[in-house]
Amino acid sequence: MDRDxxxxxxxxxxxxxxxxxxxxxQGSGISATRKLLFEAEPTITKILHLLDPELAPAKAVKxxxxxxxxxxxxxxxxxxxxxxxxxxxxxxxxxxxxxLRADQFHSWVxxxxxTFWESxxxxxxxxxxxxxxxxxxQDKLGRRDLSDAKLVQESFSEKAPEAGKPRLRVxxxxxxxxxxxxxxxxxxxxxxxxxxxxxxxxxETGDLAExxxxxxxxxxxxxxxxxxxxxxxx
Length: 234
Prior knowledge:
This protein is mainly alpha-helical. The protein contains eight helices and four strands, in the order ααββααααβααβ. The strands form two sheets. A two-stranded antiparallel ribbon has the order 1-2. It has a two-stranded antiparallel sheet with strand order 3-4. The longest helix is centred in the C-terminal third of the chain and has 27 residues, at 177-203. The protein is rod-shaped. The mean pLDDT is 94.
């Protein structure tokens, strides 16, 4: 909605109403001011209905007969008040909602992303977080021959470890179906994060929206915590 335009139309209408009432008191110029009121009425009524369909009048101007009109000036003033306060409603009357504190993300993520985030380079922040997790995973497994999604795939593989190919195992009894499910979920999450988030961050142009980047950092933070908690089996 063009609130500035709506406000201007309501203010102009209020001034025209004052001119009409002044003309009636003076007994001259009534016809001209009345004409302008009726010309403005369709737009004013539409604005008021848009702002508050339940309380808006059927018509902002009604013919009372004998040249007299009823002007819904109180509704117009209410509309002006609504327009003035709408921005405040969006922030001050919004329901409380949880928020993510980026500085509480896993340190592998936030320590790498912080400098880029503070300079508002959000895509670079996501890429830095993904690169950091990759480096910590390589260090944890002692591998430099693989990286990113391929490294995640081999790390969380349900296959037994091989020479030069240690595995990650989520904590718990590895024969427990719930633990096995988390193991497969960690693999899917890790590959998904690198395929769907890291690769676009590395290769696409244009920056991310702040909220979108925050959500992506949160995804990598979840992955980092899982990797950090996992045991290495050789």
